[in-house]
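ingest -> validate -> predict -> emit
validate: passed (alphabet ok, no gaps, 78 aa)
predict: started
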Amino acid sequence: MLSVDDVKEILRVPLIGVIPESQSVLQASNSGTLTIHLQGSDVAEAYSDVIARFPGEDRPMRFLQAPKVGLLKRLFGG
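emit:
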């Protein structure tokens, strides 16, 4: 998995936000729901941060570190 710094180096453009990887994105996509409407989810908060930055609102960058996933969880999910 690429780090945020790797992505910034590859793209060579400033990032306006990081959308965390989430199972809820797949579920929302399958049901035709916009992920920004998943209130209380990290994904919805990340999209809200990005949208607020467009007109110049100053918000801290969140979700820069991906959570560590253990071996058993990677093998068996959950």
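The CA atoms of residues 63 and 72 lie 23 Å apart.
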